[in-house]
Amino acid sequence: MKAGLGGVIVYVPDAVEAAAFYERAFGFERKFVSGGNDYCEMHGDVPLGFVQEDYVQKHLPEFVKNRSGAHPAGFEIAVTSKDVDAAFARAVQAGAAPVTEPHDMPWGQRVSYVRDLNGVLVEICSPWTTS
Question: What CATH number has the domain bearing residue 18?
Answer without folding.
Answer: 3.10.180.10
